[in-house]
Structure formats: C-alpha cells, structure tokens
Amino acid sequence: MHPSAQFRPADRAMAEALMEEVGFGMIFAATPDGPRVAHTPLLWTGDGAVQFHLARGNALTRHIAGATVLAVVNGPDAYVSPRWYESSEQVPTWNYVSVEMEGRVRRMDDEGLTGLLEGLSARNEARVSQGEVWTMDKVSPGHLAKLKAAIVGFELEVLAWRPTFKLSQNKPADERERVALGLESEGSRAMAQLMRDLVG
C-alpha cells in the first residue's frame, strides 16, 4: 500500500470491483522455509472472503491453514514520463492500481473446493466469447476426482483492506490530462481511462 493517503480510496466497493474484474492474484505468507508467494485465481464471495486453490505440492499449501496471509491483486500500471508535464521540474513515476487483503485462512472441505471450482469456471467461461460454455460435468467423475486430489481449496476471511489507486491525484487536472494523453499515445489506455473515470 502506498503511504500517501491521497492514493488510498475510502470506497471499498472500488477494491472489490478490481478484485472481481481481475480475478487473479498472489498469496504471500511467512513459512518455516522463509517467505513464499503463490499465484492463483481468486474468487470474491461477496461476503468478506476470498477463495482460492493451490497445488497440493505448492510451498504454501502445508503452512497457511490457520495462518494470517496477504492476498494482492494488481490492476493496470504504467510508467509516467516527466516529458508529459508542463514543467521540466518533474521526475519519472509509476501509476498503478493494487489491492492488498490481509486475513486468516481456513482450509476448505471437498464440497467447498467443488463450489470454488464451479464459481471460478462459471465466472471466467462467461468472459469467453466463442464456443460452448465449459462446465465440470464435461469431465468424467473419476478423472475429475483425480484432478481435484492434486489441489487444495482455501478461504481467506478479509480482516483488512489496503487499496492503492495511484492515478496522479497529486497533480492538477490539466497535468493529469497531459499524463492521460501521454499514456494513451504509448498504448496504456486502461490506465488513462482509470485516471479520467476515478479522478476526473
């Protein structure tokens, strides 16, 4: 989380929307073997929890049940060149969107894991524009059981949200627009759009 309060939105709905839109993130935890991170799809339950699964052999899997961990979701990011400002007395920076969620983890049972997998596939299959929607019933029960045995489901009860939406809020409106135009010219349209939509 950025230390400057001007980059931390008070509206938690923005953080939830980012998590739902991106749907993928990192789980960080301290383990007896040192700090570890896992990259995984994330499913927001809508009631204060984030669900995810890890490979059974992942370095975090045997350590995080009952532990406090950090989940991080990153949105768009972009380099901001000083040449886009009116004044030459500027330095490079980076605009970015990120949400940190801290909380305690519990291990899910088989029924919970099945619900997680169904939720993840339903959400992401809805985003695929071509072909027939895939569902888990397309896999034979025996093979599906074998695949599920290779992963472990977890649920993180979010106790602390720490969002950062660094979108040039520390600059005047005309300077922000110059930056947005510069970002668009370099192909960072998503960041430019966020700057206009969320900051003005």
UniProtKB/TrEMBL annotation:
Q: What is this protein called?
A: FMN-binding negative transcriptional regulator
Q: Organism, per UniProt?
A: Novosphingobium clariflavum
Q: Which Pfam families match?
A: FMN_bind_2
Q: Which SUPFAM superfamilies match?
A: FMN-binding split barrel
InterPro entries hit by this protein: Split_barrel_FMN-bd, TR_PAI2-type
